[in-house]
Design brief:
The structure is a single chain. This protein is 64% helix and 9% strand. By secondary structure, it is mainly alpha-helical. Strands 1-3-2 form a three-stranded antiparallel beta sheet. α1 crosses α3, α1 (6-14) packs across α4 and α6 runs antiparallel to α8 (150-191).
Length: 192
């Protein structure tokens, strides 16, 4: 994959209720602002979603006080779109987009999605920990004072960056796992 699925993020905002492009822009800014999507992205994405059969037009209304105002088109997710969204929600995220995609999935999820999101987050944390132990990490201060060849020193610095990034990612994943586990536990207890 390699990139966050903008189509699924926009589609997810329409799963529960139909929406206009302008409203979707506002929702993206308010709920998914961390993605940094341009305003024009919504309309391009709506076109692609409609071409794919994932959304459909369900009405229009005139904007402004005159009949010549630009019409706002109301879109809703189709059954095919809902299936695609649910499938995306269940997919494991590619590490390159993990933090953004998992954040988007959390924002767009409902409590029924938590067990799968928890499973994905735990798997990603384990994968990060496995990779972490493979990295060579001499002290950066030692690299400045020893006669290690530059090529090796550069690789050690890259490994140090990767290790710090992986540690940060594991901390975040472990934190959200705790929250999801507690929410699942409380929901299970409430249903008994």
């Amino acid at each position: 994959m390699g990139r966050l699925s903008t189509k699924h993020a926009v589609l997810g905002l329409m799963i529960d209720r139909p929406s206009y492009g302008y409203n979707l822009q506002q929702q993206i800014a308010n709920r998914l602002g961390f993605l940094g999507l341009a305003e024009s992205t919504v309309y391009k994405t709506l076109e692609r979603l409609e071409q794919d059969g994932w959304v459909e037009e369900v009405g229009q209304k005139q904007v402004g006080g005159t009949r010549r105002g630009a019409p706002r088109i109301l879109y809703r997710a189709t059954p095919k779109g809902v299936i695609s969204f649910k499938s995306w929600m269940a997919e494991t995220s590619d590490r390159a987009v993990l933090r953004d995609e998992l954040q988007a999935k959390l924002v767009l999820s409902d409590p029924g999605d938590l067990p799968r999101l928890l499973e994905m987050a735990e798997a990603q944390s384990s994968e990060c920990l496995r990779e972490l132990v493979t990295l060579a990490r001499p002290s950066l201060s030692d690299l400045a004072t020893t006669d290690v060849e530059w090529e090796l020193a550069a690789q050690y610095m890259i490994d140090d960056f990767k290790a710090r990034w992986l540690e940060s990612l594991v901390d975040w994943l472990d934190g959200i796992c705790e929250v999801m586990e507690e929410r699942i536990k409380r929901a299970t207890e409430a249903s008994l």
